[in-house]
Amino acid sequence: MRRVIGLCLVGLGTFLIVMAVVLPTFIVSQVVKFPLNEFETATLVANNATYFNASTLSERSPVTLQATYTIKGDGPAGTSSTAVWNEFSYVYDITNHSSVQVQSRRMAFDRKTAQLVQCCGESVDGKPAVQTGVLGYVFPMGAKKQTYDLFDITLGKPVPFVYTGTTTVEGVHANVYTNNVPPTKIGTVSVPGSLVNSTASSVTAPEYYSNHVTYDVDPQTGALIDVNEHEAQVLYNPTTNQPALTLINADLVMTPASVHKVIGLDTSGRNELTLLQLILPIVLGVVGVIALVVGFLMVRQPREDVEAGPTTPAPERAAVPEDPTRANLVPGLGEEHKEATAGSASEAKTEPAPVAEHAQTTAEAEQAEAQAADAEEAE
Questions:
Q1: Do 98 and 62 form a contact (C-beta atoms < 8 A)?
Q2: pTM above 0.85?
Q3: pLDDT per residue over 165-191, tens digit each?
Q4: What's 154-203 look like in SS3?
Q5: How far is CA 184 from CA 42, 72, 103, in A?
Q6: 65, 43 Cβ separation under 8 angstroms
Q7: Considering only CA atoms, which of 110, 129, 111 is closest in space to residue 121?
């Protein structure tokens, strides 16, 4: 039974050690993925912002703008390897209590690498759009200190986000990635000439877009934990090629409440990753080594006992009781016989004789007495 238990412990220890190695290297990479049914909101605010109000055909400045981003996962459209998320953004003029901008986006991406894929009706503002690069709302888990290409919905193509250093957000270590889009022409707009300082009644004005974005990313989870985005869209005078009308200019910063909320969600995810990648492997490894050593010792112990041999001495023959009559017949026999009898008697006390040998000894004693009696009669 001891050997069986030992073998079981050896098997269990080996299994736990293997799991300690496989869990962080293979199982975690297969199990830990971005969720299908994501639901999250974040709020950014810009003070001293400027935008063009279409109803009054004039710029409004300075105003406070609030941008709310909502992400909702389309679970049924996703698979074990691909997630589909819908994003809705709404910019609101807090100062004048009016809507400024509404945008929507549908994207599909790899649940491990956050790379955008084409599969499930991806679109921007309801129009089909081929999106490539990294998702942007999340970075790959285990984000590295390198440049990542993120899809810019205004340009309709990926732009580089360059690793520029590290920072700390509410105690969480983060990688900093920045993107700088210089003023880039993205189209033309027909407007009254007076809006762009032109004497013509109507002009086709070029529209330029620029953006400077800073993302603070938890490298372990890939989550954005802080965002700063300074976006500008401007119409140029087609004659002078100079900025003439600001469509929007806002330096949006994530609110402290949103940062705190995101940090809470990120901490929960980071704790789960730490449990799977570090704590459980260590515990499994230690327990596995202990079980293996104990099992090995239990398996070897019986063999050592056998090699040591038996420790109980074998029983010896009981001594024959002394016959005083017979001892007197032969000179010197009495002394030697007494010594032999005394030695046998002391050994017999320490180790009882078997029943069969005792019976034989008794028979021999009776025979000796009979021979002694015959000898006396003969004399």
A1: no
A2: no
A3: 999 999 999 999 999 999 999 999 999
A4: CCCEEEEEEEEEEEEECCEEEEEEEEEEEEEEEEEEEEEHHHHCCCCCEE
A5: 28, 31, 20
A6: no
A7: 129
Structure tokens at 242: 């100079």
Which residues, 6 or more positions from 189, have their beta carbon under 8 angstroms from its beta carbon? 204, 205, 207, 235
Q: Give the chain's residues under pLDDT 70.
A: 6, 20, 22-31, 271-277, 301-379
Q: Which residue has the tokens 């965002």?
A: 227
Residues contacting residue 235 through CB under 8 Å, at least 6 positions apart: 189, 191, 195, 196, 205, 206, 207, 208, 243, 244, 245, 247
Query: Tokens 């039974």 — which residue?
Result: 1
- pLDDT tens for each residue of 257-271: 999 999 998 887 776
For 234, other C-beta atoms within 10 Å of its C-beta total 21
Half-sphere exposure of 170 (CA within 13 A, CB side): 16
Q: How far apart are CA 291 and CA 217, in angstroms?
A: 41
Label each residue of the chain as H, E or C: CHHHHHHHHHHHHHHHHHHHHHHHHHHHHHHCCCCCCCEEEEEEEEEEEEEEECCCCEEEEEEEEEEEEEEEECHHHCCCCEEEEEEEEEEEECCCCEEEEEEEEEEEEECCCCEEECCCCCEECCEECCCCCECCCECCCCCCCCCEEEEECCCCEEEEEEEEEEEEECCEEEEEEEEEEEEEEEEEEEEEHHHHCCCCCEEEEEEEEEEEEEEEECCCCCEEEEEEEEEEEEEECCCCCCEEEEEEEEEEEECHHHHHHHHHHHHHHHHHHHHHHHHHHHHHHHHHHHHHHHHHHHHHHHHHHHHHCCCCCCCCCCCCCCCHHHHHHCCCHHHHHHHHHHHHHHHHHHCCCCHHHHHHHHHHHHHHHHHHHHHHHHC
